[in-house]
Specification:
- The protein has 339 residues and is α+β, with helices and mostly antiparallel strands.
- The protein has three domains: 4-70, Uridine Diphospho-n-acetylenolpyruvylglucosamine Reductase, domain 2; 75-187, Uridine Diphospho-n-acetylenolpyruvylglucosamine Reductase, domain 3 (2-Layer Sandwich); 236-338, Uridine Diphospho-n-acetylenolpyruvylglucosamine Reductase, domain 1, CATH 3.90.78.
- It is 24% helix and 28% strand.
- It is built from seven helices and 20 strands.
- The protein has helices spanning 30-42, 95-104, 197-205, 213-227, 248-257, 275-281, 310-328; strands spanning 4-8, 20-27, 47-50, 56-57, 63-70, 75-80, 84-90, 129-130, 133-134, 139-146, 151-156, 177-187, 236-239, 244-247, 264-265, 270-273, 288-289, 292-294, 301-304, 337-338.
- Strands 6-7-12-10-11 form a five-stranded antiparallel beta sheet. Strands 1-2-5-3 form a four-stranded mixed beta sheet, covered by helices on one side. A four-stranded antiparallel beta sheet has the order 13-19-18-17.
- It is globular.
- The two termini are 23 Å apart.
- The model has no long low-confidence stretch (mean pLDDT 97).
- Bound molecules: NADP nicotinamide-adenine-dinucleotide phosphate.
- NADP nicotinamide-adenine-dinucleotide phosphate binds at residues 126, 128-131, 165, 196-198, 227, 238-239, 243, 264, 272, 274, 276, 300.
């Protein structure tokens, strides 16, 4: 295993800022991942697992430990019947490449999750989802190295305790598991309307009435490329803030003061409020704060235009959070993890 030292994290994160990692290594098998972890543990070094770096912010001080770059490959059909195909995918596979392969196989279940950056192993961590689909709907199980018991474990879907953009991997069991593969079960049926509102609107506008996995994938890619800046040209982490969730009593107040506020019923007494709308209504759309631009097509996205480092981003973030809280009394939260 090759271990590199003093590696600039800005070269491995799409926001392109932050200090150095003291050590970094790449792992291509589950056994290599375990060896890297044990090596760091023997030296009492903290470990961080890095996938595509598209949902991670590096602080200016850098990371005084070992970054393990997850590169485990794999795409294996492990079951195939009349209605469905089950596939085991290596944690280091590029998520969108996986979506494309399954769409080419005419399988349904993740086609609306097209063009999401990052690796397959990162998808369960925040229960990634988009346009009405989420990984929790298709994930049968995953294999992870349990750093507490020093064993590989198979976690079934229920054990991951998925909820809206949440799982045990970023709440109760944060840092405990290194996911090495995921197993997803996809359907052989064609995608069925009605689709998620924004997607349905796009399909109606483009007069699309035949729905295949490929048509849905292409529609989502088109919607996303129009709303999201290309990180290769404009450094960003996609949505920088989580969509807000409010209780029904808060909603009554909000509706009284802001009758146009868009809300979506989550069916459990809570409502989603698009954070992009809150930021836009706070007058920040297209503004530049400390070298960080609030994207003019989607206020949920922050672009590193000319920030001198993490501090600038943190200052911009805090000013945006304050502006939204002052106007709406809603505390919005950052989505990407920090190292
Ligand atoms: P958007 O479509 O503008 O939606 C903003 C918010 O409104 C989200 O909370 C969304 O819920 C909700 N919403 C919109 N239409 C809805 C409907 N018909 N029914 C229920 N809720 C609705 O969001 P965006 O930022 O451009 O993102 C597009 C899609 O990508 C969304 O599905 C979003 O969740 C997803 N996304 C996921 C991640 C992630 O997994 N970390 C990051 C960025 C964006 P939903 O979130 O339930 O869709």
């Amino acid at each position: 295993m090759e271990i590199h030292t003093n590696i600039p994290l800005k070269n491995f994160t799409t926001m392109k800022l932050g200090g150095n990692a003291r050590f970094m290594t790449e792992v291509r098998t589950p056994e290599e991942a375990v060896a890297a972890f044990r090596n760091a543990k023997a030296q009492s070094l903290p470990v961080f697992i890095l996938g595509g770096g598209s949902n991670v912010i590096a602080q200016d001080a850098g990371f005084n430990g070992l970054i393990i770059r997850m590169r485990i490959p794999g795409f294996e059909v492990i079951n195939d019947d009349l209605n469905s195909t089950t596939i085991k995918v290596g944690a280091g596979e590029d998520w969108d490449a996986v979506v494309k392969r399954t769409v080419d196989m005419r399988l349904s279940g993740i086609e609306a999750m097209s063009a999401i950056p990052g690796t397959a192993g990162a998808a369960p961590v925040q229960n990634v989802g988009a346009y009405g689909q989420e990984i929790a709907d298709v994930l049968e199980s995953l294999i992870a190295y349990d750093t507490q018991t020093d064993n590989f474990v198979t976690l079934l879907n229920e054990a991951c305790e998925f909820s809206y953009r949440q799982s045990i991997f970023r709440s109760s069991q944060i840092g405990r598991y290194i996911i090495v593969s995921i197993t997803i079960k996809l359907s052989k049926n064609l995608p069925q309307p009605p689709f998620y509102e924004a997607l349905q609107t796009y399909l109606d506008q483009h007069d699309v009435h035949i729905f295949t996995q490929e048509i849905i994938r292409n529609a989502v890619i088109d919607i996303r490329t129009n709303k999201l800046p290309d990180p290769k040209l404009l450094p960003n982490t996609g949505s920088f803030f989580k969509n807000a969730i409010v209780e029904d009593w808060q909603l009554t107040d909000l509706k009284a003061n802001f009758p146009d506020i868009p809300t979506y019923d989550m069916g459990d007494g809570r409502f989603k409020v698009p954070t992009g709308w809150l930021i836009e209504q706070s007058g920040l759309k297209g503004k530049v704060l400390h070298g960080i631009k609030i994207h003019d097509k989607n206020s949920l996205v922050l672009i590193n235009q000319s920030a001198s480092g993490y501090r600038d981003l943190a200052n911009a973030r805090d000013e945006i959070i304050d502006a939204v809280r002052n106007k709406f009394k809603i505390q919005i939260e950052q989505e990407p993890l920090e190292i």
